[in-house]
Amino acid sequence: MNESELMVLPLVVRIERATPPERTDALEAAAMAVLSLLDDPGEWGEELHAWQSTGKIRKVVRRARGAEWRRAVALPGRTIEHRTAEVRVHPPVPLDDWPRDLARLQVSGTELTDGGELTPAEPPILWANPGLAMSAGKAMAQAGHAAQLAWWASDQAERAAWRAAGLGVSVRTAAAADFESMVAAGLPVVRDAGFTEIEPGSCTFVADAPWLYGRVARS
User: Cβ distance 32 to 168 under 8 Å?
Assistant: First the structure.
């Protein structure tokens, strides 16, 4: 397949200067936005199928504020509001043919922090690798990958229960020993392609829920 035939899923996070979202809220919102599209693609079923059929699940996170955000919202897509975060997921597009108002948005500058105590995590929990430094935008894309792998590994009844719970996820950073154990436990693991920030093949996230153990080949 030529590079021009590859598809990418655009995600846009709203980052206003005065009111940036909490980092964890943004990561969870990105994962929930991906799940929303997988669960109910609506009119974008064809684009979603074309994207997934490439064998890649590339996602790119860009940031917007003010008029940029309003232009992004005017394009086809779906906005997920989650606590302090707003993330808009757009239908997949060819890698080299983004809508102009999305293509002009910046990828860099998604440095977010958490200002307070995190609420207790509830499964599914998307565990970040504590040994990797990732920008918020990179981590949002990786959390989206983890949520997608967890969705694929869930059966119809498990997806229905997840849907009934609002397709929620928790995103947390694992302890080093715990992360290695989960990688070896047959859970969905994200191994990065290495396009940006980190080395190819790095394990970035593990998706953890009681029903996911043993669902994938052990490392």
Answer: yes
Distances (CA, A) of 43 to 35, 49, 50: 16, 12, 13
Among 204, 145, 151, smallest CA distance to 179 is for 204
Question: Buried b / exposed e across 56-92, counting CB within 10 Å, b at 16+?
Answer: ebbbbbbbbbeebbebbeeeebbbbebebbbbbbbbb
Domain 125-212 sits in CATH at 3.40.1490.10
For every residue of 46-108, DSSP letters joined together read: HHHHHHHHTT---EEEEEE-HHHHHHHHHSS-EEEEETTEEEEE---EETT---HHHHTSBSS
Per-position DSSP letters for 137-153, written without gaps between them: HHHHHHHHHHHHHHHHH
Tokens of 89: 């997921």
- The whole-angstrom separation of Cα 63 and Cα 83 is 17
pTM for the whole structure: 0.94
Helices 23-39 and 136-153: crossing angle, nearest 10°?
40
pLDDT tens for 20-66 read 999 999 999 999 999 999 999 999 999 999 999 988 899 999 999 99
**Residue 108: how many other CB atoms lie within 10 Å:** 9
